[in-house]
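Troubleshooting log. The previous run stalled partway through. Resubmitting the same three chains, unchanged.
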Amino acid sequence: MDTSTQLLVVTGLGKAYQTRNGDKGQRALRDVDFTAEPGELITVIGPSGAGKSTFLRCINRLIEPTDGTVTFCGQDITHLSRGQLRPVHRQIAMIFQNYNLVYRLTAIQNVLHGRLGYKNVLAGSLGLYTEEEKIHAFELLDEVGLGEFAYRRADQLSGGQKQRVGIARALMQEPKIMLCDEPIASLDPKSSRMVMEQLRRLSRSRGITCIVNLHQVDFALEFSDRIVGLRAGEKVFDGSPAECTPDVIRGIYEGDAEAMVDVAVGVEKNGQVATPVAAAMGEAR
Amino acid sequence: MSAGAAVVERPSVDLAWFRRKQLRALAVVVAAVLVFQGCSMICNFSLAYAITSIPAAFVWMFQNFIPTAESFQYFSIIIEQTVSTALDSVAATVIAAVVGIVLAVLGSSSIGVEFAPVRAVIRAVASVFRNIPMIAWALLLLLSFKQNEFTGFLALFLTTFGQLTRFFLDTFDEIPGGPIEALRATGASYWQIVFQAGIPLAVADLMSWMLYMVETNIRSATLIGLLTGTGIGFVFNLYYTSFRYDTAGLVIIVTIVFVLVIEAVSNKARRSMI
Amino acid sequence: MESVRLTEGAAATVERDVLGKIRLTSSSNRNVSVQVTLVVLVALTVVTFLRMGYGTVDLVQATRQALADFWAMMAQPALDPPYGAGHFTWETVLESAVITLAITAITTVISGIVSFFLALAASENLSSPAVSNVVKGVVAIIRSIPTILWVLVFTVAIGLGSEAAVLGISFHSIAYLTKSYSESFEEIDAGVIEALRASGASFWQVVFQAIVPATITKIISWTFIRLEINFTNAVAVGAFAGAGGIGFQLYQAGSRYYNLHEVGVIVYVCLVAAFVLEFVSVRLRRRYILND
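Second attempt completed without errors. Output:
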């Protein structure tokens, strides 16, 4: 297929972390090919240390890949400079396991951070936003159900609320893609479900592609359009949830005994409820 | 060294482990005693003399340092000089903080400039300024600026600058990386990240260090004032060397009150900032 | 209105400032103490500069000379002619540096031991409220008196010499360490102490089996931080205590001989000593903390 018309094309992506004495050390990512279409919700599963986090960060180059190319909206972004990367970054939003809010600022200020990529240095540094931007931020907070918490300091919110502020911040960027790095790993089952439902709704209604690293296989099976399995830095599976059979999952998690329990329980219940084991797994990470 | 050996070997039997621990403690005590004895010989220090003279020293202090009615005629001068010492401490801290925060941002490992040699140079400059003795600054400045309050302020500023920059560097080094990464991911530029994440995440600690510096500077300013002829140090020395111990005692009491009040105020401010 | 798209609760939350602009922090519960503190400090700074005595020197000229002097000190350090004047030999300089280091070590050992016991008495969880408050109060008063005043007092009370220097520096050092140690002690989980007490352990058993092991890294850390400060103080009071030391040589070079090249050499010796102390202290702290 012609790569210029696709949203995101990743080819041959690799990352080798340098060891201290300079030679190429452990390979966190090896020759990953991957594409994403608009509006897809793709989950990336795999045992701890499989390179899920590195994979996401290589897409928006928070981590510099050592091999391969990332093509976003027909533009090869692998070799862009920091300045050139700015307009790309604002179209690729990111949400994090630890929410990564600036805890001293209010929820609304954190949401408005999503606009920084669009603003000039001075206005952005001083936090001078236009009335339209502020109203939009309020609307987004309202949309994630936190309209009344706009003036709360971020550190006074619960985990689930923080993550929803994180989502509102991401939406403030008007992104084409949302990279979600273990978004529910620190949340209780109820909040986890709420966040996952919100992500699915966003991908459906706004056509935002969500690429979600998940530890909980049951959630992955329930919510994704497509599942990607990573093991030891390599892509070992890419297909629909239906194709993702218990055998496949076992293959992905081979050798990770702790996760196997998780997989077994999760598959048994067919992903209907977040299992305590799964939640605990996320917590333990 | 026995401490090193204890670390390398893995404890296999509990009893042996305990014994090793006791040995280690014993070694530390013996080492401390030896160091102490050696040092005492080097600088001609007699612990017995020091200890036995403490009671006499305190008796002497309480006999001589009690302010008399007469000493209160100098009260307004003492207050004035104490206020000027306190104000100098504040001013030196504020000006040093302005310079220090810029250097600390650029030199920090979390939000500093990417070019490592620049960060290294900033750290080196801070370290050198911090460790140049205060007396050296004061003597150097006395030669050109002569004996006046401004000279004391400059000397205080130069030492404060080195210390505050170091404290600020530590503060910025310790801010969580997550929010910084999140802002980078939104496409925020360098200065936007500094002002929207770096400063807000560090501000409580930065302020805390500034207030701490104001407190310690009052004490440092006393020494500098002794050399530059201003402030608490000057008036204390003036009365002390002219054997007006009652008035010198009043200076000490005023100093205690000032420092305690400033400490109480800044502790309150610190708590309300978290 | 623009805010019609908001739900009722959210719309009610929106606050506007006097110009009708949407606020980003609530007027009711925002914390302005940082701003207030900054404004107060800056205002005091302005007042300071307005009332400060600048002397009679031409400030531009003086600045130029100070920079030249700084250059002479840092870039041309020398003891011997042509820059130096031969007032000092390397032997005297290094010997006095060793004396200052010795005073530093003695003070730190003394204040470490005394502070440990005072801190036990000052900790709320180990001592009675009355004793704790008294010790804390006395320590606060001792701490508020500048080190140099302590030294001056002792030089007259017990005579010039290393004893005056050591005692003078120790007082402030003890006050500082007592506060730091006792804060570490107070952070200990009350359950640990309770459990040991319940099992019939005596006070000293509790101290050495629970308190010391739980806080040893912090104690070491604080002690070495104080070691560095004590060195700085030992240099600073050197000129006044009559105990000799590098601070005294520094004072001689700067205030009697007015030779900045010689001051430079002494400053570099102080810098090296300070860096060594800092290096040792960081290494030891890291090692003990890693091993725990």
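Takeaways: Chain C has two domains: 2-51, 80-291. Chain C has eleven helices and no strands.
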